[in-house]
Specification:
This protein has a six-stranded mixed β-sheet, covered by helices on one side. The chain contains six helices and 14 strands. The protein has 278 residues and is an alpha+beta fold.
Length: 278
C-alpha cells in the first residue's frame, strides 16, 4: 500500500466541457487523440491535485486518455467512474496512489424532474488513518429560466435530503461531506436551489464565501459566471483549510486568454481546496 506522506491533500473539481451534442454538435464528445485532450492533460498536470472530480466526461474513454497523458508527465492517477444511467455525460474521479476511493454509488432519483438528467455520484474517500469523507460529484440542470430553476430545485431536494440522511447513518455520522461540481447555480440568484441543496442546514457553501474570484464559467461574450460550486459539511469538516478554496487560473498558467482557453480547453475553470491530514 502506498503511504501518503503530505500534510495536506488538495481536492479539485473541473468541468471538461465534453458535451457537444447540444446545440448541433457531432455528438462524439472530446476526441481522446485530439489537441483538446493534450491541453486538458497539461492543465491537470499544472493543477496537480490529489483528487480531481471531473464533470462532463464524454466519451468514457476520455478519462483513461487523460490518465495516460498524465503518466507521460510523471503523474500517476487511478480512476473511479460509474456510467450515468440516463445521460451520456459522466462524472469521474482521478486520484493519486495513497488516496483510497471506494463504494461509488448514484444518489437515487437525483436527476429530479429533468428527464435524461445526470445523477449525483458519491464515493468514500480515505487518506491515511485520520481523513475520511464522502465526496459527492454533481452536474445539475443548466439554464437561467424558471423551468430550469424548478428542475434544479427537484434535484437539489433529493441530494439535500440524502446528505441529511447520511449524517444519521451508522458508520457515516462523523464523516466529512465534500460536495462539488457544476452546480449551474449563481450565488445570490438561485436562492431556492442553494437552500434545498444544503439539506437541513448541513452544508457550508465555501465557494460563495472563500473565493476571491467571482467566476468559473466562461461565456462566448467573454463574460463569466460563478456556476461551479464547492461545499463542505458544517460539522466534521474541520480538516478543510479555511480560506484555501481558490479558482485555479488554468488559462493563465497555460498562457491563454479566456476566449482561447474556452475554444481549445474548456469553458470552465477548476476550483481547488486543501484539507489537513494531521
Amino acid at each position: 500500500m502506498v503511504t501518503f506522506t503530505h500534510s495536506i491533500a488538495r481536492f479539485a473539481v473541473w468541468n471538461l466541457a465534453g458535451n457537444d451534442k447540444f446545440p448541433g454538435g457531432a455528438g462524439t464528445g472530446i476526441d481522446p487523440q485530439g489537441q483538446k485532450a493534450l491541453h486538458q492533460a497539461l492543465g491537470l498536470a499544472l493543477l496537480d491535485a490529489e483528487v480531481v472530480t471531473l464533470v462532463e466526461v464524454f466519451p468514457k474513454a476520455h478519462i483513461e486518455r487523460l490518465r495516460e497523458l498524465l503518466a507521460l508527465k510523471g503523474l500517476d492517477y487511478e480512476i473511479t467512474l460509474a456510467e450515468q444511467p440516463e445521460s451520456h455525460l459522466h462524472i469521474g474521479f482521478l486520484h493519486k496512489p495513497g488516496v483510497e476511493v471506494s463504494n461509488p454509488r448514484f444518489i437515487p432519483g437525483s436527476e429530479g424532474t429533468y428527464q435524461g438528467g445526470r445523477q449525483a455520484i458519491a464515493v468514500d474517500v480515505r487518506i491515511g488513518g485520520r481523513f475520511k469523507a464522502v465526496l459527492i460529484g454533481v452536474h445539475l440542470k443548466s439554464g437561467r429560466g424558471q423551468d430550469e430553476q424548478a428542475k434544479r430545485d427537484s434535484q437539489c431536494r433529493i441530494i439535500g435530503d440524502w446528505i441529511t440522511q447520511l449524517h444519521q447513518t451508522p458508520g457515516y455520522k462523523h464523516h466529512a461531506i465534500l460536495l462539488m461540481g457544476d452546480f449551474n447555480m449563481i450565488p445570490g440568484q438561485d436562492v431556492s436551489n442553494f437552500h434545498h441543496l444544503g439539506g437541513a442546514d448541513v452544508m457550508d457553501f465555501v465557494s460563495c464565501w472563500d473565493l476571491q474570484e467571482r467566476y468559473s464559467h466562461i461565456l462566448e461574450s467573454g463574460r463569466a459566471n460563478l456556476l461551479d460550486g464547492f461545499a463542505v459539511s458544517r460539522n466534521y469538516s474541520t480538516r478543510y483549510v479555511q480560506g484555501s478554496l481558490r479558482l485555479f487560473p488554468m488559462h493563465w498558467t497555460m498562457r491563454m486568454g479566456r476566449e482561447k482557453f474556452r475554444a481549445n480547453v474548456s469553458d470552465h475553470l477548476p476550483f481547488v481546496a486543501s484539507f489537513k491530514l494531521f
